[in-house]
């Protein structure tokens, strides 16, 4: 019987397989790229020059207002006191200004920088512009729910309707080309249940095939869950099944990674979706957060599982967005910090996981796919270099790059101009619905270290050039 083994066991099992066997699909260290790679110089000098990402011309497509807005927003994000308290400040401003007044301030500024819009027309306008710049959309419904915030089955069904609408919008418009979308499982499954499942995974083994049967409508009794939890889990799996059925062969669904206290459950569910929907291609992808000390082990375990269960495997590779809270929780609970001790360690982890995936892709590009989801120029250069060394097509579809809307456009636009496949993660919704997302973006700008500083410099240079051009009339 195939089973979703406990993380430590599975990892051990996988390492044994790695060291010991020679079955036809056995993953050797060489195949995975864990053997030391060759040089890391960019071999094409023209490409190497472009990938310094120092050309402010990347911003020539932006209006003066957009340049000013980006500069203003990034400047605000550079004040720790504002960023650390932005949630409270925004709630205060909303109370003082009222819903309409607050929206009038936020909409043309922070909201317009990071969010595509609210109505389908507004979203289409943003997407058409993006598409004309050679960028692909990755729509994201910014539903953020944490422990104790659940408001019942009805709310999850409403979220399902929103997600299905997102699937439809992603593939049925003129601007949709090879569309992707992001999915937060906690929008469809109670986060408290995800935490419970995560702790059960330390004791119980969940069989991926059983989860697939539950998705198909079979009434399964899951060990360790009470009746109410079991019913909710079955309803949730039906919801996720509907997303899979609506998106397969049309939209790639990238499941977000969240907190370590629920990620194992999210991965379990995602793997079951992969098992059902990734038979002929990677339509469901999982996210791996490289700031976690265990990220490499988790990625290796998942690759093994995909081989054992014969499904295609798509990976969104990120550094991770919840560092402060993860560390705070570990401290409070007197647990080992799950996050690498420094940014440099996280970088090594990121580039190591990237190498593993790129090596697999170079051998089986139809089976493995990755989105290098980062604003980090060094990681982008690393990916481009390895792609060149391994002979991976830049527009072959197996490797693409991803940045968030409103962040590091100099990286996205330069890559797109060079013919790489680039996605922008595009949240949409009302000001109120996107507030928690905006707070997180502000905080992220604080930790996205070099990229934003450089983007600000380039924005300034482009602004000066435009002003000079207007004054002197010279081009
Ligand atoms: C398309 C897309 C999708 C995303 N989806 C997800 C998702 O599903 N889940 C998720 O968690 N995040 C997600 N993110 C956010 C991502 O995890 C990062 O927070 C963000 O991209 C910043 O990392 P970077 O590699 O771009 O930038 P960098 O500036 O290179 O790195 C900043 C990151 O490094 C890490 N870091 C910073 N300081 C330290 C330190 N002292 N010690 C250890 N590590 C440190 C943190 O992860 C921080 O966010 C996504 C990002 C993109 C672009």
Automatic annotation (TrEMBL):
Residues 127-450 form the Proline dehydrogenase domain. GO terms for cellular component: mitochondrion. Gene3D superfamilies: 3.20.20.220. Residues 1-23 form the signal peptide. Its EC number is 1.5.5.2. SUPFAM superfamilies: FAD-linked oxidoreductase (SSF51730). Keywords: FAD, Flavoprotein, Oxidoreductase, Proline metabolism, Signal. Its cofactor is FAD. Converts proline to delta-1-pyrroline-5-carboxylate. Belongs to the proline oxidase family. This is Proline dehydrogenase. It comes from Chanos chanos (Milkfish). The lineage of its organism: Eukaryota, Metazoa, Chordata, Craniata, Vertebrata. The gene is prodh2.
